[in-house]
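Figure 3 (text version): structure tokens given as input.
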């Protein structure tokens, strides 16, 4: 009796196992990536899936450190979206792609050179006291700003290259081991249930 019933139970368990394998491969194969950088007073973003496929129509949300949403928009056909810096603060950029996939990118306030400079009081009321020193100070600030912008423009391609290299490498060792362990756990459960039914 038991020998005749076991094949009918093996088929559903096999289908469940195949389904879990398919879900695991889908999870690893559709990782979402979000990269953001600053040029002047504008933040530019690029979003793409594994295999360099662009995220089209992905929802991009921007939050402040308190979790308040500052703005949102959608990526274009090339997976790009840009916006003016709303204010000098850390910005948490969240991408919501298809099938519930998400990615985040944090832009620190110190990566926004010059944004707060226009809000600082000028030294016009001190012209009569030390005009030459104020001119020198302005020149130094301009040089510092130019150096920061130049450094950012040099580092930006390097950061983008590193991000794409990481994407091309696929899932990390921890993710792979976790996925394999999950599959073996399901297999163990299947064998355990089959053994109980035979007994």
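Below: residues designed for each position.
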């Amino acid at each position: 009796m038991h020998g005749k019933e076991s094949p009918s139970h093996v088929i559903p368990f096999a289908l469940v196992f195949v389904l879990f394998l398919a879900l695991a491969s889908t999870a690893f194969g559709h990782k979402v990536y979000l990269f953001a950088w600053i040029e002047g007073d504008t933040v530019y973003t690029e979003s793409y899936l594994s295999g360099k496929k662009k995220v089209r129509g992905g929802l991009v949300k921007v939050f402040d450190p308190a979790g308040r949403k500052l703005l949102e928009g959608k990526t274009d056909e090339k997976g790009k979206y840009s916006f003016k810096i709303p204010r000098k603060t850390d910005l948490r950029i969240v991408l919501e792609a298809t099938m519930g996939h998400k990615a985040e990118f944090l832009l620190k306030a110190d990566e926004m050179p010059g944004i707060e400079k226009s809000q600082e009081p000028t030294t016009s009321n001190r012209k009569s006291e030390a005009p030459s020193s104020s001119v020198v100070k302005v020149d130094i600030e301009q040089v510092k700003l130019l150096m920061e912008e130049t450094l950012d423009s040099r580092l930006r391609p390097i950061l983008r290259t590193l991000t794409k290299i990481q994407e091309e490498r696929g899932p990390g060792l921890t993710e792979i081991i976790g996925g394999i362990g999950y599959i073996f756990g399901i297999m163990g459960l299947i064998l355990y249930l089959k053994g109980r039914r035979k007994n």
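The chain has two domains: 1-30+179-199, 32-117+131-169.
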